[in-house]
Design a protein that fits this description.
The chain has 193 residues and is mainly beta. Helices cover 0% and strands 28% of the residues. It has no helices and 14 strands. The strands form 5 sheets. A 4-stranded antiparallel β-sheet has the order 4-12-7-8, with no helix packed on it. The chain has a 3-stranded antiparallel β-sheet with strand order 1-2-3, with no helix packed on it. Strands 6-10-9 form a 3-stranded antiparallel β-sheet, with no helix packed on it. 18% of the residues are buried.
Length: 193
Amino acid sequence: MVQKSLTTLLFGFNPQTGTLYSYWPMPFWKSARIEISNNTDTDISNLQCNVWFKPSSALSYNKKNTGYFLARRTIDSDPDTLGYRSVAFEEKGRGHVTGVVFYSDRYDMDGDEFCYIDDSKTPQIHGSGTEDDHNQGWAGRAYQKPLWGGLVNGYDGAYRIYLNDCYIFNPNIQIAYEYSLTKPHFVNGEKQM
């Protein structure tokens, strides 16, 4: 089995050396907590971690004008309430989406992206193919650029970091992708044939 590595501007990993990195800005004012979970059957016999921070004297975030960093893993259960579209990300409140890492074995590369912002009934962003959101076309390749690319192709292991064009929302956002009828159908996370 070929193990692939990933190198982006803000995060990446190398399975040969067993290392990963994350340089996402994560402002905090009093304390910070980092949790690392192993959701696999592989035992980890050795884990080392280096954490660097800049004191407020070097990099000060105004607490009233600064948000919190949140990373979330979304596993779509495909309730099929949107008509062959599945929700990849959904959030309520105020914020902005700064990046998406996308892996799927059932989304069609030509499935449209639908991004609904702030209770809109029509998508503010309507892409013409899943791989297009990751700055690739015609299925994409395993290009790895600092802000966009794919581990496998433009929709399996694809990523995009929205540093200069983040999706701003208040009070909510929903990002959905159209999936293919030729792929296996999922109900509550279980593959149906």
